[in-house]
Design goal:
Elements lengths: L2 E10 L1 H8 L6 H16 L10 E11 L4 E5 L7 H15 L2 E4 L2 H16 L4 H4 L21 E3 H5 L10 H7 L13 H6 L3 H26 L4 H17 L3 H9 L3
C-alpha cells in the first residue's frame, strides 16, 4: 500500500484580485488587503478567501510505501506554483497512492482543482472514474465516500460539518506537537517577508500531524495491530531523529508517548 499524505499552504491570488476588482495600480500587499476587506464584508467578519482566490505557496507530503518513508516539500524555494502542482499529480501517476488529508475534500483538493484549471495541468490518473480503469469506478479520488482519497477529518466527523475538528487540537490530544512555527493565518505575512522556507517547514510539520493521526485511525479501524501501529510510529521517529532539519527533530522531541 502506497500512502501519500499531503497538505498545502496558500496565499491570496493577487493577480486574480487585480482582474476581478480592478486594482491594477495597487501593490500585492494592497491588493491582498482589499481582497481580505471585501471578504469580511461578505461574511460579516471572516477574511478567509473563497477557494478559487487562493494560490498555492507550498505542498508538503509524507510518502509511505512498503520500501520507503519520506517527509518533504515538493520542489524548492524557487519552484513555481505550476511546477509544484505538476509534481503533486506526477506522484499520483507514478504510485497511484491512497491520498490522505485533513480537510482535503473541503479545501486542499478544490484549491488544486482551480489552480490546475488556471495553469492547464493534466492529471488523468487523478481524474479517472472508471472510463479507462474499471477499478476506479467504485474507488476513485473524486468521490467523497471512496477511500482512494481519505479525508480523515471528514470521516471522523461522520461527514457532518458541525462535528469537524481542528487538526491542531486532535494532534495535541493524541500527544503530537500540533502547530509548530506559525499558523495558516501567518503564511501571507511570511511570504511577504520572503520566508518561503519557513512556510515549507511549517507545512511539513502539519502533514506529519495528519499522517500520524491517519495511522491512529487505521488502528481503530482494525487495519493495523497495536504492534504494527507502534512500528510505524517508531519508523517515523527514527526518520525524524536522523533528519538534518531542525523543525523535524523538534517535532520528534515534542511528540509525547
Amino acid at each position: 500500500m502506497n500512502i501519500f499524505t499531503f497538505d498545502i499552504e496558500t496565499i491570496p491570488d493577487v493577480d486574480a484580485g487585480r482582474r476581478l476588482y480592478d486594482l491594477a495600480d495597487l501593490s500585492d500587499n494592497e491588493v491582498a488587503d482589499a481582497m481580505f476587506a471585501k471578504r469580511r464584508e461578505e461574511t460579516g467578519g471572516s477574511d478567509f478567501l473563497r477557494l478559487h482566490l487562493h494560490r498555492i505557496a507550498a505542498i508538503s507530503a509524507v510518502l509511505k510505501t512498503p520500501t520507503q518513508f519520506n517527509v518533504w516539500s515538493l520542489g524548492d524555494t524557487s519552484t513555481t506554483e505550476p511546477e509544484i502542482i505538476k509534481r503533486f499529480f506526477m506522484g499520483i501517476e507514478k504510485y497511484t497512492p491512497t491520498l490522505v488529508s485533513w480537510n482535503g475534500s473541503g479545501f486542499d483538493l478544490p484549491v488544486l482543482h482551480y489552480r490546475s484549471l488556471l495553469h492547464g495541468i493534466s492529471a488523468p490518473r487523478y481524474w479517472e472514474t472508471g472510463d479507462y480503469d474499471q477499478s476506479f469506478r467504485w474507488n476513485n479520488y473524486i468521490s467523497r465516500y471512496h477511500h482512494r482519497h481519505t479525508d480523515v477529518m471528514d470521516i471522523l466527523a461522520g461527514y457532518q460539518a458541525r462535528a469537524n475538528a481542528p487538526l491542531d487540537e486532535i494532534a495535541v490530544i493524541l500527544g503530537l506537537p500540533g502547530k509548530m512555527g506559525m499558523s495558516g493565518g501567518k503564511v501571507w505575512e511570511s511570504y511577504l517577508n520572503n520566508d518561503i522556507e519557513g512556510i515549507r517547514n511549517y507545512c511539513e510539520t502539519d502533514v506529519l500531524n495528519t499522517y500520524l493521526v491517519f495511522q491512529r485511525f487505521r488502528l481503530i479501524q482494525g487495519k493495523l495491530t497495536t504492534t504494527e501501529y507502534e512500528q510505524i510510529c517508531q519508523e517515523t521517529r527514527d526518520f525524524l531523529t536522523a533528519s538534518q532539519k531542525s523543525h523535524l527533530t523538534d517535532f520528534e522531541k515534542e511528540w509525547i508517548g
